[in-house]
Amino acid sequence: MAPPETASGSADADMREMLRARGLRVTTPRLAVLDAIRVAPHSEATRIAELVRGGGLTVSTQAVYDVLHACTSAGLLRAVEPAGSPARYELRVGDNHHHLVCRSCGAVTDVECTHGAAPCLQPGDAAGFVIDEAEITFWGLCPECQRLDAASPIPPETDTRERDIP
Q1: pTM score, whole prediction
Q2: Which of 36, 50, 98, 142 could join 102 in a cystine, given CB atoms 3.0 to 4.6 angstroms apart?
């Protein structure tokens, strides 16, 4: 069975070469998972499975997890694991970038290294470690959630503003 076409023949060729360069076989599920992450970076495994299936490939959720594990172990993918949230996956690896995470909707976006070259930050005491990477997660509200928050009235049961008693 031939692998599904990607949005770009060049992207398909690049993904094939990435897999081979890391000693992984080129398989239809691997190409489909990598393409889904290319199209929707920072997606959870269940979302990646939906995208792969939406592309016409019949694949189990376990098969998607297996591909994610193999590609992450081979250094092709990075798992981003915000506290209290399932892992998200991205193709951007090896550049020590960081992430912004929305506390409300869970959106994740990339942010460049905070200062200079990797590891960007140095601990006060490295305890003998040779530091090569710093993983920083910034938390806040994305622009859409800020807009929604500003537009929504305060529910009466949570309104603690002082009021005059009639």
Answers
A1: 0.76
A2: 142
